Structures are given as structure tokens and as C-alpha cells.
User: Fold this.
Amino acid sequence: MDAPPLPPPAPTHERWERREQLFGLARAATGFMPDDEGEALYLAALRAGASLENATFVEIGAWCGKSTVYLGAAAEETGAVLFSLDHHHGSEENQPGWEHHDRSLVDPSTGRIDTLPHWRRTIIGADLESTVVGVVGDSPTVSSRWTIPLAFCFIDGGHGEAPAWADYRGWARHVVEDGWLAIHDVFPDPADGGRPPYDIWRAAVDSAEFVEDGECGSLRILRRI
Ligand code: SAH
Ligand code: MG
Assistant:
């Protein structure tokens, strides 16, 4: 009689420790991703990295690198590469006078928000530079020239109507069959938050090109069919 198939290997001690180290750094980083949602994001990206060879991940909206470290952990573990895109000037809601403004992030020489030095510090501190590539620029400009098929795409950029739709139209089309699309700040109840991330999530589901594949808090995971 044949021996029964072996169970998948448990993560090695080193791998487990590295994951815990990265989760700790992600939790400590400045940003807008609750711990449980960050770990759910990691798990979804881990599946993408494990199921597709030489996988490419893209994150839209990096801020100071919090979600970048969760995604970077999954990329490192599976040999994927993460492109983390942001112009680093903040979204509308981060500008002076808005709810999510942080004056300490303004570069006095330009008078504009600049989260790039903070993002770099986070990535260097996490020792993720061989896995994570920063792309500094405007999302629609980059998506208009992008050609690499994506195993995993995380949309968490500008949450206004125009930027959210531009991200959905510009990036969802690059997700490969059986690949994943994750959207953050999806609030079914308008009392909990702005509409555009919810609207693009609805559009993805209604398109019948994506099926729901998990959620945690305001994070929605979709899979292309
Ligand atoms: N994922 C981050 C939070 C991102 S906040 C975390 O885990 O903490 C949203 C980000 O989208 C901001 O950093 C802002 O600069 C970026 N952004 C908004 N509009 C953009 C655009 N058109 N191009 C590139 N980045 C943009
Ligand atoms: Mg968000």
C-alpha cells in the first residue's frame, strides 16, 4: 500500500520568527491599517504568491509603509516582488484642514506632505529592499504604461470619486485569471466612511469578472475568475 501523502510542511522556526518580526514592525509603522486587516492582507497575498510562480504584487497607496510590510512579508516568503506605488504627497483627506492631516509629514522645503522618507525608513528597517520596490508617481500615469500581469493588486490610494475609479479602471485589468484584487476602506454603511471604495468594490463584483474571496473589517478580497 502506498504511504499516505505528507501534510504540507509547517513553517520553519526561522520563517515563523521572521513573520512575527515583520508583523511587529508593521504594527508599529505609521498608517491606516488595523492589525487584523493587515494580517488578512498578508494571508491573501501569501496565497497569491504561493499559487503563481514569480508572482508580481502591486500596492496602490503606500503612505509610510504599514501595509507595504504586510504585503512585503508575503512576497518575501513566496519569492514574489512587490511594487509599492505612491506619489507620497498624501490624498485629499491628508491635506491641511482635513481629518487625516499630520503636520509632521510636511517637507518644509516644498511645503508639501512627503511620506517617502518615512516609507524608506520602514522598508529599510524591515530589511525588505530586495523584495519591495518603491514606485514614486501618480497612479493613473503609472497604470497607463504598466504591462506586468499581477498576481495580487491592493487598492488603497485616493478615496475620492475620481482617484478611486481611476485606480480600479487602471489596475484591476492587470490582475491575471485566478489572481487577487484587494480593496481597502470598503464601507457598506455610508455612515462608516466614504462611498468610492465601496462603489468600485461593487463594480468589481457586478462585473462578474471577480468573485468575493474573503473580508476583514473594511478589507475586501476578490478573485478573478
Ligand atoms: N496603505 C497605507 C495607507 C495609504 S493612504 C497604509 O497601510 O497605511 C493613501 C495613499 O494614497 C496616500 O499615501 C496618497 O499619497 C496616495 N495617493 C493618493 N492619490 C494618489 C495618486 N493619484 N497616485 C499615487 N498615490 C496616490
Ligand atoms: Mg486604507
Observations:
- The chain has one domain: 28-224.
- The longest helix spans residues 35-51.
- The chain has a mean pLDDT of 95.
- The chain has seven helices and nine strands.
